[in-house]
Structure to design on (523 residues):
């Protein structure tokens, strides 16, 4: 079932490739805006890089959250999925996994490239990649709770942001912290471990909360 | 005596009405007493001068913001788990009061920060966590405002509040870590004022006053919410008088 | 009882500013609740079904 959901969602997303690309382009544009707004001095850019890249990743994830359940909701598939005998937890997990692959992994892959704009060292770029690789699942998982709660509501993306951004803050702190530690020369390991811990905890609990939220939104 | 009848909004409505003065009047008295002790009895602090007196409203407000969030989550959770409408209405009622106290604590904290640390805003762990708490309140209130169906709003709010309450310790811990890491850049707090007995007394009296005030205001709002939601029930036909 | 220094040792703006803001927040909360309640009870009294009509309607269902 899990595999079926993931494959289905991936196939549907592939039919709308433009959506995937738009998330990545948004991320790149936002990251590029900061140096333009702040100034090209490399030392300054290196200081702000972790925060800027991470915040841009947060915002790009949030924009893509609307798509997680909305399409299935609008054509009635989501209701049918709720009626299957398979646990809703699995359905949610599958959809979130597909969402992560489609919306977040491209960000993770592109991030080292935009990191170059900020004159980050090779090692730091690797840490940037690793922190986003561990952090983006957290974004997808926690974001799915927000997406499920706001299904079909007016208010749209802004409402999801209000709900979900405060919950993203720990991931932001440790994700950006890892990159910053790497820039400073100290070990990013504690940050990475904590990010990993968040990833595991959200993997265990978010799909359950999202499933409950879906039932609430769909009854 | 069957107390469970009070789980019905219609039955609780008059009870709440009777309870309100019992909380509102003592609250006003305790506010007066607390301010008296805080301003007339407590001595000027050695390190911070008279500016520390902001503490008597800042600290109780911060505590209320936090307690009320947890209380809100508990009521929302009970309302969801037991399908108890009144419990969910209570959670919705608490939200605005809690947000208001959190805002008071942020603003008074800024007013305290300016003379003490030199800047209006300092990114120390507590102020930052309080700011995030305000965002959590705003999220809860916005979500409930955006949903038309009251029962869906209740349950969705419950999920959000519970997710939030579990996250609050995580957020606090993360912010504290973040703050200690970046300590070099922040201005250190000059240190708590030496706590004289009268200062503690004033703070506790103000805290009690805030609690009583919160109960009164939450009950008043709860009655409004009950009226709004149960309007069409004929048993409310007499309420207009 | 010692009458406090009203200028708060020079920090008067900050101390009184805090308390005035808190007072405004509290008063705003109470006042907005009052007006909400008033609007609701006014609505209620205009919605109120007179007791005689109510009796009539409930009797209708039994016939």
């Amino acid at each position: 079932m899990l595999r079926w959901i993931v494959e289905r969602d991936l196939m549907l997303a592939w039919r709308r490739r433009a959506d995937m690309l738009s998330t990545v382009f948004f991320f790149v544009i936002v990251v590029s805006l900061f140096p333009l707004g702040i100034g090209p001095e490399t030392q300054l850019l290196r200081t702000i890089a972790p925060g800027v890249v991470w915040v841009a990743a947060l915002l790009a994830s949030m924009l893509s959250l609307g798509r997680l359940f909305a399409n299935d909701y609008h054509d009635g598939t989501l209701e049918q999925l709720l009626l299957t005998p398979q646990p809703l937890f699995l359905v949610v997990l599958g959809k979130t996994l597909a969402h992560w692959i489609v919306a977040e992994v491209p960000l993770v892959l592109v991030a080292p490239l935009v990191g170059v704009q900020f004159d980050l060292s090779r090692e730091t770029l690797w840490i940037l990649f690793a922190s986003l690789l561990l952090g983006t699942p957290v974004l997808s998982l926690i974001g799915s709770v927000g997406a499920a709660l706001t299904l079909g509501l007016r208010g749209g993306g802004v409402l999801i942001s209000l709900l979900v951004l405060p919950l993203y803050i720990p991931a932001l702190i440790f994700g950006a912290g890892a990159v910053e530690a790497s820039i400073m020369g100290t070990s990013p390991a504690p940050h990475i471990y904590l990010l990993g811990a968040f990833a595991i905890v959200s993997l265990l609990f978010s799909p359950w909360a999202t499933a409950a939220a879906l039932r609430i939104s769909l009854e | 005596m069957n107390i469970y009848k009070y789980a019905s909004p219609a039955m609780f409505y008059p009870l709440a009405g009777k309870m309100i003065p019992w909380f509102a009047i003592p609250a006003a008295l305790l506010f007066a007493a607390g301010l008296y002790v805080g301003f007339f009895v407590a001595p000027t602090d050695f390190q911070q001068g008279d500016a520390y007196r902001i503490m008597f409203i800042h600290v109780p407000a911060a505590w209320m913001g936090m307690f009320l969030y947890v209380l809100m989550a508990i009521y929302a959770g009970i309302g969801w788990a037991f399908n108890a409408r009144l419990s969910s209405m209570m959670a919705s009622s608490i939200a605005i009061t809690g947000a208001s106290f959190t805002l008071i604590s942020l603003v008074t904290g800024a007013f305290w920060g300016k003379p003490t640390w030199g800047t209006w805003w300092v990114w120390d762990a507590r102020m930052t966590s309080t700011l995030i708490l305000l965002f959590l309140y705003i999220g809860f209130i916005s979500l409930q405002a955006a949903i038309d169906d009251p029962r869906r709003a209740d349950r969705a709010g419950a999920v959000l509040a519970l997710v939030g309450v579990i996250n609050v310790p995580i957020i606090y811990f993360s912010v504290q870590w973040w703050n200690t890491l970046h300590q070099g850049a922040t201005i250190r707090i000059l240190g708590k004022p030496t706590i004289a007995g009268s200062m503690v007394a004033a703070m506790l009296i103000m805290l009690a006053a805030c609690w009583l005030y919160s109960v009164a205001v939450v009950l008043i709002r709860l009655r409004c919410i009950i009226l709004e939601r149960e309007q069409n029930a004929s048993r409310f036909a007499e309420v207009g008088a | 009882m010692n009458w406090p220094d009203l200028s708060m040792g020079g920090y008067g703006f900050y101390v009184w500013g805090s308390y005035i803001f808190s007072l405004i927040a509290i008063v705003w909360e109470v006042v907005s609740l009052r007006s909400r309640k008033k609007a609701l009870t006014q609505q209620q009294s205009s919605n109120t079904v007179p007791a005689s009509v109510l009796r009539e309607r409930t009797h209708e269902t039994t016939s």
Observations:
- Chain A has a mean pLDDT of 92.
